[in-house]
Amino acid sequence: MDNINAILANAKSILVTSHLQPDPDAICSSLGMYDYILKSFPNAKTDIYLNGEKLQAYSTLKNYDDIKWIKDVSEVVNNYDTLVFTDGSHLSRFTNSEESIDLSRFKTICIDHHKNEQSNWDSVILESQEPSAAQIIYKYFFRGTNLIESNIAEVLLTGILSDTGMLRFVRPSALSTFDYVKELIEISDLDLKIIEDKYFNLTESDMDIISVLTTNITKVDDYKHPFIYSYLPMEYLNKYSLNLTKQGKSKFQMFFATSIGKYKWSFIATPNSDSVMNISLRSSPGVENVRLIGQQFGGGGHDLASGGEFPIGPGQDSAQVCLKIVEKIKGLNL
Length: 334
Ligand SMILES: [Mn+2]
Hints:
Elements lengths: L1 H9 L2 E6 L5 H17 L4 E7 L16 E3 L11 E5 L20 E6 L10 E4 L6 H10 L7 H14 L12 H13 L3 H8 L4 H12 L2 E3 L6 E5 L10 H15 L8 E7 L4 E8 L6 H7 L3 E2 L3 E7 L6 H15 L2
Parallel strand pairs: 1-2, 1-4, 2-3, 4-5, 5-6, 8-9
Antiparallel strand pairs: 7-8, 9-10, 10-12, 11-12
The protein binds manganese (II) ion (MN).
């Protein structure tokens, strides 16, 4: 903390950002750091940038309108002397143009909860047992200080509730999450149900995506742990933005990813471009370690929630790509 505060105290211009296709924990953890820096180091010029475009669903979060939405953070980093990254700890999570960001030219701070290879940061808090980045930021930067007020408590609570699936994914090794949630509910004076309805209700695009994914559910029985998969057809590549598509997919996973009969783990395939299929994996505790599978697909994440990618061959449709993915999974022998 002393190290982080010393970096921030010396900074003239600070950029705060989070991972590509930001989910609510990415949005809320970066808003948390942004708020902390605005309050604690008001003399620095501080900006927050995220990838993609504004999602209406989160517009009531404190300072959400301050977020500058861009295609890639590499376009703007050189205007700052200090960079703050949340909810990821390898540079490739934050940019598609890793080669154009030379981290050694900046002072860098990273706050994350993913188990993966790290880039070289000047100061890092990485706690992979914690289920969300937002709670790490609460614990170290706000808890017990006079910086915490109801609006920012709502932001941090929303990040925690999103990454924990409304607290369902808090593992016995992370029970202090409930202490943080209790304190944040007291400070924000919000019912969990109100936050769920405010930020996680279903939009029209969510409903469309969920219905297509439901229709395409396919069962795989001839694997040590039976699983299901589903996919969006190639035409969904241009139907919604990647951020909106990801939002709908995540909500489908909340309902169906690990809850259909004996099928306790799953993957969802959604086209990221006409040559790259995004794969998102979920598992019940003690079934399949999807972090290890995600790593075999060039990604990673957590034991119960991870992601990766797979190439789309010329002329292939999503169903055909999924058959190739299943073939690869069966051959992994993990
Ligand atoms: Mn997260």
